[in-house]
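Teaching note: in complex prediction, the entire set of molecules is handled at once rather than each chain in isolation. The prompt given to students was simply: 'Predict the structure of this complex.' The entities are:
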Amino acid sequence: MKNFGLTPLGAGAGLRHAHFDDIISQRPPFRWFEIINEDFMNFGGYVLESLREIRRHYQIIGHGVCLAIGSTDPLDLTYLKRLRKFLDDFDIPWTSDHLCFTMVDHTNLNDLIPLPFTSEAATNVIERVKIVQQELARPFLLENVTRYITVSDREMSETEFINTVLEKANCGLLLDVTNAYLNSKFHGFDPLEFVRSLPLERVGQMHLAGWERAPDGSFIDSHDAPVPPEVWDFFKQILPYTGPSSVIIEWDAQVPPVHRLLEETLTADAAMAEVFSAKAA
Amino acid sequence: MALAAVLSALRTLILDLSELPADEPGRRSLYTHIFPDLSAAEVEDLAKIPPHRLNIYSTSIFTGEGKLLEAKLPMTWEALRKYWDGSFHEQATYQQVARRVHALRPWRSSATEDLVEGLRAFIAEDMPLSSSKRDQLLALADFELDRFYAARLSSNILNGQLSPDDLTSLTVSDLLALRCYVPSTTRISHFEFDVLAARAAFRAEKDFLPLMPVRQCVATSRADDNSVFSMTIPTPTFELLNSVTAGSYLTVEELAATYLSTIPEVRDEAQQFQKFLGFLITLMKDRVLCLALPPLSVSAGYSSQPQP
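The expected output is the structure of the full assembly:
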């Protein structure tokens, strides 16, 4: 099974509010959009009506930031039921969230905090993913997060942790290429080796994004710039292992004009065409 | 249990402690003391994390919350940045203000409603302010919360509502018999300050503080093109519209009688009618209310309260 059994959609983009009007009026040739579920599911008004109009013309895929799959707080079943209804209403075939925690002690940290790579943390995530899959009744993927810190790798490595969770929960992987690349810089490992250690048949979708260079020379996963050349190169290196997939450009801050975003998706499509045509030849 | 203690300790390190020992033994000693539920191995794990790496998360979280609050309640946020610890400051940073708000009013869920309501509670109960400044900040917060909810609430308006153009073909008696509904997206509030003048000044990038003390009744609504409007309405009209509960309605005749009581200086009936018609059309265009013929053209069970 390739691509976790999901239809490869080619290159798309993260749908952001700043582009609603241009997308609705100009209908630029994006293949598909990924939405942040929480940016839409609690709304009426302009936001939801724009999404309805955009959905008439484009495939939409879901992505969440609030599930807190790794938290020890109880899973928010009300949230899951609302999410299920939202995904059903917009005929969204699959969705994803992050392999991390965002809530603990009933406090929202509003960021993606990495988990300790322990069997206890893995078991906690596995049990929660099973509930999520049951509630959402559609394929569910977990994304590898940018990780500025290692909370604990005494018991297992990050790839062992991801493998354990995905296999035992039987869910897919949203492979964030930029996150994997940045983590290799933060923690000093070979990014290609990292990716090759993952269960690549479970990769159902990928993310690409740009970053901010901090004054001290470090990197911040800020999604506010074009995809850097080294990430494009890395993307091409891993494509032969993943096969065709669904890839989006994430550009969340200092959002460019819609035509510039489209250029990035065309670059991603061209990269995939280059790799797969060479492989076919 | 161990996992919960580790995640909780991380939360404390990221959100609550701004100064951590630079050296690993110092952190180990501190964490052993403040995190008694952690095992020695877990303390060792956390002590290995360099504080500057934890600080990346702290900065991101507090800056992100500040930017979100600024996007949703821009005037309130701007005023708060000036008065955030009770005395005047020229533009405290997002992080200073958000850290302070978070410490006293932690964001308890993933819903933005909880974040913005937490900010209001922070102003109402936690800020060491004079009552005058507190009242002004609360007026701004309440006004902007009205706009926040008007923009995002699900609309209960269904097809079949009358448009202003439809009114031209009606006789006066037919018009007066129409039913007025207040949509779920309309918020009607009164303030002791001129919040609309403050908003105008803010949008013009002029100083909007202090607010001018004046009683102001404001209807905030979402029009068909999804624009959010805020307009002053006469006090009797405010009281009448405020009395329209979920699922109930009033007649145009009731609305007209109330409105005309606010313009006693206009004695000519034709002029009164023209004035009222202009007022009614403005209310309709901004969707402060909608007009319908019986039977009900509005979905049952609608509410002016935020949807969960």
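Point out the following to students. Residues 296-308 of chain B have pLDDT under 50 and may be disordered. Chain B touches chain A through 46 residues (CB under 8 Å).
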